[in-house]
Specification:
CATH topology: Rossmann fold
Order of helices and strands: EHEHEHEHEHEHHE
Helix content: 40-55%
Number of strands: 7
CATH class: Alpha Beta
CATH architecture: 3-Layer(aba) Sandwich
CATH superfamily: NAD(P)-binding Rossmann-like Domain
Strand content: 15-25%
Length: 247
């Protein structure tokens, strides 16, 4: 059985990814920060369907907490699955901010940097001894790295940095046969950035070739697929999952 860690797994794309991985027979460790009850619901749903899942608290913006998180992961792996390692890491945790460059504060900038680039970098570093040879990493980025959208410059810039980091992970971890890919969602119906109102959703749908915005499962299925053996020759890629947004 593959075991995967999904950060920000209590809602949205993370929760969908957890469910999709469990449906494919994978064990799931999902993390939450401020929503423990939502995380427990995801775990209960997976267990109801016959899967195994554990929810652990993690603040991706606080790299000083990563050694303790690694210890918690080790304990969960041994207790639940009788293993000392895991197979895949999905760096998904994050939040959005709509603010023009002229008014972005240093505090807002640092917060976005910490959760979207610094956090994934040092979390991967902390967990690297536990990921098995031949494992997988999936970094969740954004279509805003390709299509410039006014008001999300810091968010998009750090997601762009995560795309570059993905290729370097693939390069440096290749001798261990660890694959690294990025998944770049377009407009998705989640709570990121406060969600979408009807008018904005209609606008985004009109700019998408398939005529709608995406659902979390549209992305979760792709991530789960990248964690499977069927995509074992896909490496160092950034895959946009947007239904054809702004093409």
């Amino acid at each position: 059985m593959k075991i995967v860690i999904i950060t920000g797994g209590s809602r949205g794309i993370g929760a969908s990814t957890a469910a999709q991985c469990a449906k494919r027979g994978m064990g799931v460790i999902l993390t939450y920060n401020s929503q423990p009850e939502a995380a427990k619901t995801v775990v209960r749903d997976i267990e109801f369907e016959g899967g195994k899942a554990v929810a652990l608290k993690l603040d991706v913006t606080d790299s000083t907490s990563f050694p303790a998180f690694r210890a918690a992961v080790s304990a969960a792996l041994q207790t639940v699955w009788g293993r000392a390692d895991f197979d895949g890491l999905v760096n998904n945790a994050g939040y959005g901010l709509f603010n023009p460059i002229a008014t972005v504060t240093e505090e807002q900038f640092d917060g976005l940097f910490n959760i979207h680039l610094k956090g994934p970098f040092f979390l991967m570093q902390a967990l690297l001894p536990l990921i098995r040879d031949g494992g997988q990493i999936v970094n969740v980025t954004s279509a805003t790295t390709r299509v410039a959208t006014a008001g999300v410059a810091p968010y998009a810039a750090f997601k762009g940095g995560l795309e570059v980091l993905t290729r370097y992970m693939a390069k440096e971890f290749g001798e261990r046969r660890i694959r690294a890919n990025a998944v770049s969602p377009g407009a998705i119906r989640t709570e990121l950035g406060g969600g979408l109102d009807d008018a904005f959703e209609a606008l985004l749908a009109s700019q998408t070739a398939l005529g709608r915005i995406g659902e979390p499962d549209d992305v979760g299925r792709v991530i789960a697929g990248l964690l499977s053996d069927e995509t074992g020759w896909v490496n160092a890629q950034s895959i946009e999952v947007s239904g054809g947004y702004m093409i």
